Fold each of these.
Amino acid sequence: NVSVVLFTSDLRLHDHPPLRAANDAREVVPLFVRDTAVDAAGFAAPNRLAFLADCLRDLDAGLRERGGRLVLRSGDLVDEVCKVVAEADADEVHMAADVSAFAHRREHRLRQALEADGRRLHLHDTVTTAVAPGAVTPAGSDHFAVFTPYFRQWSAQPLREAFGAPRSVRVPDGVGSERLPSRDALSGLSEGLAEGGETVARKRVTAWLRAGVQAYEDRHDDLPGDATSRFSPHLHFGTLSPVELVHRARKVGGPGADAFVRQLAWRDFHRQVLAARQDAATADYRTKHDRWRSERTASADIEAWKEGRTGYPVVDAAMRQLRYEGWMHNRGRLLTASFLTKTLYVDWRVGARHFLDLLVDGDVANNQLNWQWMAGTGTDSRPNRVLNPVTQAKRYDPDGVYVRRWIPELAGLSGPSVHEPWKLRGLDRAAIDAYPDPIVDLPEGLARFKRARGRD
Ligand code: FAD
């Protein structure tokens, strides 16, 4: 008896329901398919490919320690799985359920192809979420559109137990693999890109739960303090299990751990929205807005935003962090998204696309729905809030440390004066002439926003 375990965004050995189900007294082919359709859809950004390469190497190493190995193929996912099934004479395939429209179509095609040949596909829930999409629903709807009641039910949901990695994995002979990719072969990577793989992910968790999570409630918005977990790429690639994380954080307990678990619920929340409304990846979810400035008219502003040259230091610092690390602090994501969609009045899809080009944690559910939230087309109950970049900067970077870290042109300025360089005069102003003037006047941006939303 042979099973194929198809890894997708669950690149780990600990707490892995498909592997656990398949590994039970059977031989297993641990398989990853580099799906050419993902590349064709433009989703294969260099930063994520590099992180993926780390994850696959680490997964292979973990399997080898247990007597197995990873089989890698590339091509059409359904074709490649079917080929491996035939080569190994496997009778079943186990994989994690996923939420996007693309993933659903792929699962459907795979199921049909396998069943036509007398084989079975087993989909497993709670591999990439703590609570499965659709497991909790409000009366009269297939999903929650508001987070607070979702979170109440999510918190009351019993979690399955988390389990360890298998002791051994037996892989049948005769199934060939391509060579594993390496990040060294890739170009265009962010210089400060994090390392991928379950081994580093698990070390991070241990360190975070020992020292870090306790201060999370107070410090998660602190831009210079950088006091969040940075688990997002690991959750995206599944080197960490959400179920296991929730269990371990709850065991630590306290306000920090509670606040952290709440953020994990936000992740599940967006996934259950996308699972039920798959067009929300591209279409306005709740409120339709179609008076965005055209990309052509706004092209200079969009470029300045992408390059971190808007003249608003905190916006520029966050955009430069994104380019340098392939990651951005959540507060930075909020205020740069507000700036693009509300102050510059540019369609959220333009910003979401740029984020997906660079973010190592770039994730259709989290990225698109957070963009919609900030743009006022999504699930935010205050869709017309506009984040003022100067107020935000003074609140979340009071001494200007974060701005000076990312904007060398402003490194010579002291204290919070760094947030409003346009107010400087004389020699002070001359010293920073490499830094641009603001590309937009905030009151004018606000007036344009109100006109477009019919609120003046
Ligand atoms: P922590 O604060 O330590 O939180 C722990 C985990 O909770 C995160 O790793 C993440 O999985 C989850 N989480 C935290 N905040 C959110 C949130 N608002 N929504 C959903 N899940 C959350 N997150 C992504 O994983 N991928 C994206 O592509 C992405 N795009 C975003 C785009 C915008 C415009 C905004 C405003 C937010 C986006 N987020 C995205 C959510 C959030 O900013 C990141 O998850 C978070 O900054 C990652 O850092 P962390 O792991 O240190 O988070």
Amino acid sequence: PQLANQIAAGEVVERPASVVKELVENSLDAGANNIRIDIENGGATLIRIRDNGLGIAKDELALALARHATSKITSIDDLEAILSFGFRGEALASISSVSRLTLTSRTAEQNEAWQVFVQGRDQEHTIRPASHPVGTSVEVANLFFNTPARRKFLRTDKTEFAHIDEVIRRIALAKPHIVLTLTHNGKIIRQYKSAVNDQQKLKRVAAICGDDFVQHALQIDWKHDDLHLSGWVATPQSTRAQNDLNYCYINGRMVKDKVINHAIRQAYAEHLGAEQYPAFVLFLDLNPNDVDVNVHPTKHEVRFHQARLIHDFVCQGIANALLSAEQ
Ligand code: ADP
Ligand code: MG
């Protein structure tokens, strides 16, 4: 099973940023609203995520590290309507097979916290008492210490940290109410405060995407049946178009989707006759039964059951915003 874990690790654990993504998503799944991410040396020596979520009970700690052990789906039918981020039960098993992992957690029912430590191939772990508030900390030390081939692919600390920063940026956009703190080598690099009302949310978007984007963006709020498209697209007039600023979320999950990208391009082409590809931050919410998210292990891709319908809905929503901006 250890080899299987290391092979699976290749799929989900490409670099420190992928570890951060999986761990922060676990924190979100656990209902945390305050997550701190501490990074040392671009994540190569240490990644520590601390949350104030529900925690893991003492007798489930070891299980959490086992492959295909997930508490999030109980039957195959659940795969049809996945709302939580994780569902494969692979992340902790994979990460612990290529690092030295310490999991510390306390539930509200327990008076004390418990901790397990696993080290790469040697999957023996002991549970010991620890000190921790309600919630969970995961410490990943010496990533890829036992897989030198993969370690060689790590870039400079600066580059690896930039990838981590981007992961946190994406999550910060999707979950405006969550407090996120990101440190590197002991220094606070990002601190996203909780945003609840529209004004606070816009401020947070500005902190993430820049004032320039927010000042030039058209707000989208477009509904039809149980489809809802919201967010911002850059106006055609915006001079400093940040073409790489393309954030698209489906039911809160960041994706790169061809159908949606095409719809955006078409709306711009039809209304401006231009080969413009604007900056955008868009959230599409739809019935989870109408989309498959279980297409790829890293879960960047989705499959719509009615792609044409989604395409036209998104295209119309953006075209509508462009039209009203002209008036
Ligand atoms: P998955 O997220 O797909 O279920 P993971 O390997 O990421 O699989 O996590 C395994 C299990 O460990 C989860 O199902 C959850 O029960 C538990 N877990 C992991 N991280 C946390 C956390 N931060 N807070 C609470 N429970 C957690
Ligand atoms: Mg997970």
